[in-house]
Amino acid sequence: MMEAGLIQAEGVDKIYNRGKPDEIRALTNVSLQIKPGEVVVLKGPSGSGKTSLLSLIGCMARPTSGRVLVRDKDVAKLPERFLTQIRRKTFGFIFQQFNLIRKADVLENIALPLFPCNMTMAETRERAEAILDRFGLSGKRNRKVHRLSGGEQQRVAIARALINNPEVLIADEPTAHLDRKLAEDLAEILSALHRDGKTVIIATHDPFLYDHPFVDRIIVMQDGRIEGVIPS
Ligand SMILES: Nc1ncnc2c1ncn2[C@@H]1O[C@H](COP(=O)(O)OP(=O)(O)OP(=O)(O)O)[C@@H](O)[C@H]1O
Ligand SMILES: [Mg+2]
Question: CA–CA separation, 96 vs 51, rounded Å?
Answer without folding.
Answer: 8
